[in-house]
Amino acid sequence: DIIIRINDLRNLKVKTESHFTVFGFIGHKEQHRIFFERAIKAAQAPFNKLNNPRGTTIELFLCYHIHGMYLATQQEYAKGYQVSKKAVSLLESRLYLIKHQPFLRAYYSSLYSYLFFCSELFKQNEALAVLNKISKLTAPNTPLLVYSLLLDMYINSGNFHIGLSLVKEIEDKLKSGKIKYTKGALMITYFNTSYIHFGSKNYSQALKAINNLLNAFHGQVLNDLHCTGRILNLLIHFELGNQELLEYLIRSTERYLSKKKGKYKSEKIILNFLKSNISLIENKNQIIEAYQKLKT
Predict the structure, then answer these.
(1) Predicted structure pTM score
(2) Half-sphere exposure of 103 toward its Cβ, with a 13 Å CA cutoff?
(3) pLDDT in tens, 85-100
(4) How close are the terminal C-alpha atoms of the chain, in Å?
(5) Are 207 and 237 in contact (CB under 8 A)?
């Protein structure tokens, strides 16, 4: 009976991760909710354990892990933070298990999830403490995605100057080969690097990073990342004053978004704003005034 329950949860974890890989985490809240509810029902998973924490360590970890992924898609970061913290506490209370590979992977996954929610909630000191644990666990090759989460935290908190130092550290590690990464992690890092440079008004560097994202992995980018990357690309060209190129890129992006059938509403608002105000590209005061009207 225990083996069946664990297998059900493992299968659900794989299905959930595959679903999120295809759709990403942004702009698909309802799709994620429907998928999650159907998957839980089909798997007959013991999710009552979330409120009544009894069972094997691996059962509880899988429940926390899957639930945390779902909460991330719903942007319920405070709840996700509590769930991920429980997962870490669970495994750290059983450190004797972590020397075994399955539990070591589980511990890394729980720390990564914990770091994600810390970054979304701007818990900078806590995030750095979690990074230190991950670094010890994965030394000497800490995965790139871990550093990218920290970049995301600096973006969300507006600490672009700290983010620039981390960008330099990441670039050095990539050049030396002292960092592990997947294509997905590299794409996310390209986007975050571009955003950090954009927030720091280093528009040429921002353009270089976003071009790496949009060109090097064309057709392989997660839907939400590709869409957001296109919008950031427009904003960079707007700041650089590339009016003629921007007109072409706006039309191209408009065609791309028109196929999304109502998704990415905020991106479409930004696109329409740029389209309506492209003639003001060299008049910063009027642009600021137009932006204030947009906010109201």
Answers:
(1) 0.73
(2) 17
(3) 999 999 999 888 887 8
(4) 58
(5) yes
